[in-house]
């Protein structure tokens, strides 16, 4: 079965799913995206992902190409046409097609919308979580508005590649003060030796405010764990009892090594494992 993508009003087999060479997403990375988990054929936390999408669009002054209700229908149609039970749905909105000029097109053009979906292997994801991942630190050389979920991901691409070339799976960005900001496509967390769960605050635009991160706050509070939203250094992470990352595509993934140094006993920690297990009690499915 060929995968089906939605492109500007049409559902097309992948090989026919094309955008214009002068789409501003292609020319300037002038667009935003969202990734939503799909589980039991349902969208997870759609409401919060759509709210973040709206915020990203507003920050970049890109118009929503259709109503949010219509977008919900398109997302579900793409899931149905690709028969996704477990996986992810990806949506991207760019400022549209116009002759190449940095300034916004005048008169305004219609924004472009692309939606794709992909099945994931639950067995493989669970095996990965049971084993845990290694991460490698890299300097955070991104722009100052990474709170906006733009498709401009070159530093993230290079960071991830650098991590892979060092035998790790994810990269952790570190700011000029030596504090961890976030992963290349994840939020970063530690559990201190005292048992406090720590993650960086989202207030200063230095991280993406992850939806998984917000939902996990509820799971952490419900467990009665101490939670601190504050910056933590790489040194503190090396000495942590546990570490983990969060993202819609992987929920909670334990980190067992940072820069080749084992974290805790070098195995997935009990808190990360429990939070992964309990996550969906606090997420919205629909
Ligand atoms: N990544 N930080 C960055 C830089 C991200 O790209 C992501 C998401 C997150 C976690 O956000 P959320 O919990 O809302 O998925 C944090 C997506 C999944 C991606 O690029 O594939």
Question: Can you give me a brief rundown of this structure?
Answer:
The protein is α+β, with helices and mostly antiparallel strands. Helices cover 30% and strands 27% of the residues. The protein has helices at 24-28, 46-60, 68-81, 122-131, 154-165, 211-222, 234-238, 270-282; strands at residues 4-7, 10-13, 31-39, 42-43, 87-94, 112-119, 133-139, 170-174, 180-183, 187-191, 197-199, 227-229, 242-247, 251-258, 261-262.
Provide a descriptive summary of the structure in words.
- The chain is an alpha+beta fold.
- Helix content is 30%, strand content 27%.
- It has helices at 24-28, 46-60, 68-81, 122-131, 154-165, 211-222, 234-238, 270-282; strands spanning 4-7, 10-13, 31-39, 42-43, 87-94, 112-119, 133-139, 170-174, 180-183, 187-191, 197-199, 227-229, 242-247, 251-258, 261-262.
- A hairpin with a 2-residue loop joins β14 (251-258) and β15 (261-262).
- α6 (211-222) packs across α8.
- The mean pLDDT is 97.
- The structure holds N-(5'-phosphopyridoxyl)-D-alanine.
- N-(5'-phosphopyridoxyl)-D-alanine binds next to α6 and β13.
